[in-house]
Amino acid sequence: MTNRKTKRIATLADAVTARRVLHLKEAAALLGVSEMTVRRDIADNPGLFGYLGGHIVSAADIEGDAPYELARAADSHAAAKRNACAHAARHIRPEETIFIDCGTTLEYLVDLIPENYPVTAVCYSMNTAERLTRKPNVRMVMLGGVYYPSSASFSGGAGLETLEQLGINVAFLSAAGVDRARGASCVHFHEVPVKRKVISLARENYLVVDKSKIGKLKPAFFAPMEAFRSVITEDGESALRAN
Length: 243
What we know:
This is DeoR family transcriptional regulator. This protein is an alpha/beta fold. It has helices at residues 2-19, 24-31, 35-44, 59-63, 70-75, 78-88, 107-111, 126-132, 157-164, 192-201; strands at 21-23, 49-52, 55-58, 97-100, 119-123, 138-142, 146-148, 153-155, 170-173, 177-179, 183-186, 204-208, 220-223, 230-232. α2 packs across α3 (35-44) and α9 (157-164) packs parallel to α10.
């Protein structure tokens, strides 16, 4: 039994190293065991594996000092981010489809989805997906593509094609910089195609940021201010209202 488990762990580690991210179902099929067995193997080896939103990644990708470290960002202005999401949550309605952007601000929005609301939530980041799996009445759509450890998100043609098939009622977008004249920008260029596609498809777009982002301009521009119905900060929707 021990030898079989040792071989399983080695095979799983090799697969995660080669692919960077591996879905639980794929891992179970690869190893010829149940998903529960794979979960136990992951839990027994926290130094090797991380598990977020049904996906297995290297523990180093989660714990490493990436250019944009999610753990560090999550601690920055946390109270303001939670308050901004509390204002944004009033735009969540039952029986609708929402999009939740990547980053560490909008993960707080997931916690504010009412437990009795049947909602379809579209996302492309693993920290958001992990929280969505805890919501009993939420149907989650996880966009695929290439995995980027720097933001724990996916981007690529596969995700954009999936978006084309979806009807999105409300999109909640995040940004690392909000400039009145230039618009909304982020740090990572791989996020831009997803953000732009969502903005073009959604019926309502809201930019949700804490006030520390106001007045800043980051390298990856993705939308002018008029693309958003409003900008929501910890002070509500009155700050920097787009229209």
